[in-house]
């Protein structure tokens, strides 16, 4: 069995960073995939909207591939784009990294702060807090104003900017935990946590351990109601190849 | 100035029905467009996800087209797919038909019932009620279990099924208004209202009058925060042509 | 058919200003009425309470007047005084200007600020936000501390005070829209919008276009439950003439 | 010092019943007043709206009357009409009987049921539950469909109808307390409680003991913000005599 | 009949102070008890957890004592520790002092501030606000950072520290009432209220008058559902003597 | 490193059952402890209150024991008794089994049902749903009316009763997942899941995998605010031995 992690943006360096971090957290195999369609980074509603079909294409391919025994999928972008759609398509659990990170953060802190990339993405995180029942557990949402692309590679300047934003968030929120709001921050969590003296949660590694937990507990979704397979029907245009064979 | 109405599924008969209804409601011009990409009907999360890029492509084309003076866009599917993304892209107001219908229903009834197509779409409508602040104004969400495709053409059997579902909803909810939950029901609202003796609201025509109201009041969006234009960046694959020219 | 707009305070200059603004927004006829009973301006709970019977008397007169074909009523005070009572009495739609303005503001901005007159009225607006499902759409409630009476006539000093309050509200709330919180501000919306670069919504003109939308869509209330006609019973004292003829 | 209880409808038999019940609950003096203006019973929004000025007139008279030392006012109608306005006008505490009853019910039961008169008044009680923070403490709202006028005099038939409605409410809600939703039920609470084996709370007597508690604790309102005295300004028409002398 | 007030911490000076204040507020008898088990002051979750069995032991003793006719119990610590458990055990009403104080504060102020002891107890008060439906009535929660032990005896320095914290709370919250968040502050309420010009509510005296109100109204709990007597079963260890005789 | 699981009731057969199930779920060591104080089963508020000091005593012992390297604590009772207090005392993560089960259930189902033991415990679970942000994820709370003691040993009759209650819950709630509401059900989850075709979540095993996830991610609590160590102070009576050595 293997975990599949999908980077819904099209940046390969970002995927490498995510994959390495995920493998360090996993007990079992990790299969890292990158979307072939959409923006190089996701920093807004349209970026996300354009990224989702490529993400679904990847899940569709995995579901068709008999050589793969997928135990679960993780969507490695903090906006959890396409999560509900992916859950229709997949026969095994699917988690979003914001979902994973928020739940995990609530288990180890009374009220956590979130530090994400650009301010324009804050309403996306705000909506997710509501959806996952986390409004009262989150003490504050902050942007460090680093673009996602800046997080593709390691850099000391980047680390210091992020560290400073984290410090300010902890201060202003009087919080006792930090959730990082971008997949590109995944391998900075431990270093930040050691420096800041509070648990620093990253959604990628949180998602890996949660999916492995679900596998260990033998929990698979029921495919009922709005999580049943998409109905068979013609699909036109760019993603016509995602049409069900029985449509 | 012209209103642009976009059917985000790829069914032309459906678009014709929507366009005719919209024109009856409008004071001014209506430009009716159909998406070129995605499923023939939208009845779930994946259907919607695959429909959104084609919808955005249509808005992108209108925004580039100097021969068009668009006063506003209406997304003619009750799940309001792609609404937030469309609002980034467009320079003028964008409404979803669920959004329009829910607000209008709350103005003319104390508590309205919603009757939509398949039960699997109910969680989508439920989420929208929350987003638009309508949870306390909506008395109940109901599915008539007609597939969207059945609503492409007029039919007496279809009307009777829908009428019966509406009657049951009014009874069980003790409500005083009905909101129809599919663009394909747009031209049945008046007939249903005459029979049922309560206001029956349709989101397509509601959206047309609301967009014309915004135009008359001279209200255009500020393009700030998460409604600013999408950032310039490379877009790969199927929708690469939506890349901003300055990216 | 004519729209009836009722100023529930007894200031005729205010009514003239409201009527002129409403007529500019309307496609059809506007009938402007002023209450004969109550305070000269409404700036608190008691002011509103004393104004409501006079407002209801006006609606009662219109409903009895066979020479009038009323398509809808608008209550032109930002506290929406007497709205629920008016909806019992009237056979056609009734809107409050706060209700109209809040809904319209939510359609054209992500999160709007409200700037109203005196701070003592803020709890009234706060309650209305809750009633109309607008708590999450409103970014902040602000008082410019101009009394309503100051808004009876045009004045540059008044405009500059209001402009400054709007600017501060937009800054402190990081909002992308403004809703004006007094009927006396109705004709300043466009000028403020042009200066501030965000949509500035006025509830009077918003209400006019919404009532005309309801008329165009053929939507009339069902007169059920708590919107049924008031029961026939004796009414004593000052408003005995509002007793139903069958009581 | 005396408590003032005001019946905001104009029915003297009702006032006598309320006054007798209040006197049995009070340690000190009770001054029972009836409004001179408005409907003979309050069963809807318009009934309430027309009753409020008469209620305020009574409070105004008491405030002007140097021979009276009022310790607090109780509004003896379950819709708590005019409560916010009365709090502006009065220099001492004002309670509504629904407010008093709901708070007291939450102290002696885990989840209480409410049984009121006509179904058309349920939305009024529903709104008050929200305002007083009682939505989660109330297990259900029920109408016994007795008009208020039927409760003016004692009658066995009336008692049995009410008893049956209470029984059904307790059953269907699995609740452990009952709140009576009409001032006309005030003297039936004890008898109902003895029969039903759960605490049966009446807002009139609850209000009397709460106002006496406030007096004993020396707690008087601060007259700040929206509870400050109404501003001095001209009042026209029927209630011109309520104009402040300094206006 | 006598009221029983239980100090759930083991400090006798604190109990004396509470008892004296309670007796000044009460019409009838007050029986003041101190727990024999647990911390000398309650300033956190563990302090409270260790205090609850001793509190329950006291109630158990009173319930067994045929020489006592208890009309109600008051838990005299602002965290309301053990309230739900006490309600199972007792045959008469039980109130917590935070519960009593919050309800009373909401009756005499539009929005009250709370000033309590140490910041680490704020989440406890925050949870209680939610439980009692008081989130919207409370304008702010503040710690004066005085430990509970400092409040065992009267002292001018203590009074001035508390006064200053109250002043700041009123200012920053724009509130019109103050609720004191510690039983040790019970006899400072009147002096603070006289100085500050707003009602200052203390939960001990509020609880006394509320329990006496319940007694006067003849309201006793129904002992249903989660307020039924604890089930008969063996209890091991330190509190084995609380085992029901029929277990 | 070892996980410590504490059964807060005093039933050793129950602990054996819990321990065996936990060991099957764990990668690492599991140390199973039983409380020495309190009721033999926890089925109400008082049962829980009496159980908490014994639970805290166990954590205190582990924290003092240098031979133990504890990675986390799990409270193995569905009411999560003493969770906040335990978090003050412990230097490593503490989870409640309801908390663990609810979060895990929300990851693998859209809306889950809960089936617990006696109806009198439902308000406890209801409160926890609110605390953990799970109100909208839980579709319904049900009691199978089996006492906790019946779950100490395996039995076919017990299994069938529980199975039937689960079936009814899934039907009436239209849910797609089940959460078991008692530690004594821990080893029935897999069998129930296989039969029912939906994921059946057990909080004990969920808690084990979540604590191991936190360990793997290196996340430990910050010991700030209301999770800081209890203050040093004298503790009297039965649990005096829990007094801090520096008090």
TrEMBL record, chains A, B, C, D, E, F:
A single GO molecular function term of this UniProt record: amino-acid racemase activity
Q: Which InterPro entries match?
A: Asp/Glu/hydantoin_racemase (IPR015942), Hydantoin_racemase-like (IPR052186), Iso_Racemase_Enz_sf (IPR053714)
Question: Which Pfam families did the record assign?
Answer: Asp_Glu_race
Q: Which domain of life is it from?
A: Bacteria
The record, for Gene3D superfamilies, names: 3.40.50.12500
Where are its TM segments located? none
Family note: Belongs to the HyuE racemase family.
* Protein name stated in the entry: Allantoin racemase
In which organism is this protein found? Kushneria sinocarnis
């Amino acid at each position: 069995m293997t975990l599949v992690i999908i980077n819904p943006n099209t940046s390969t360096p970002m995927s490498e960073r995510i994959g390495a971090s995920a493998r360090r957290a996993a007990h079992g195999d990790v299969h890292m995939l990158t979307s072939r369609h959409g923006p190089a980074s996701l920093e807004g509603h349209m970026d996300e909207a354009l990224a989702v079909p490529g993400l679904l294409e990847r899940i569709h391919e995995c579901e068709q591939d008999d050589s793969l025994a997928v135990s679960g999928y993780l969507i490695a972008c903090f906006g959890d784009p396409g999560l509900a759609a992916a859950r229709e398509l997949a026969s095994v659990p699917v988690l979003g990294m914001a979902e994973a990170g928020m739940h995990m953060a609530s288990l180890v802190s009374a009220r956590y702060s979130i530090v994400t990339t650009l301010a324009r993405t804050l309403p996306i995180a705000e909506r997710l807090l509501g959806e996952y029942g986390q409004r009262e557990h989150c003490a504050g949402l902050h942007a460090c104003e680093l673009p996602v692309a800046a997080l593709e590679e390691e850099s000391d300047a980047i680390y210091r900017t992020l560290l400073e934003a984290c410090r300010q968030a902890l201060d202003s929120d009087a919080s006792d935990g930090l959730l990082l709001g971008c997949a590109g921050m995944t391998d900075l969590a431990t270093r930040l946590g050691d420096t800041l003296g509070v648990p620093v949660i990253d959604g990628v590694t949180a998602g890996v351990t949660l999916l492995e937990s679900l596998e260990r507990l033998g929990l698979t979704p029921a495919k009922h109601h709005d999580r049943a397979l998409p109905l068979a029907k013609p699909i036109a245009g760019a993603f016509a190849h995602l049409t069900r064979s029985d449509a």
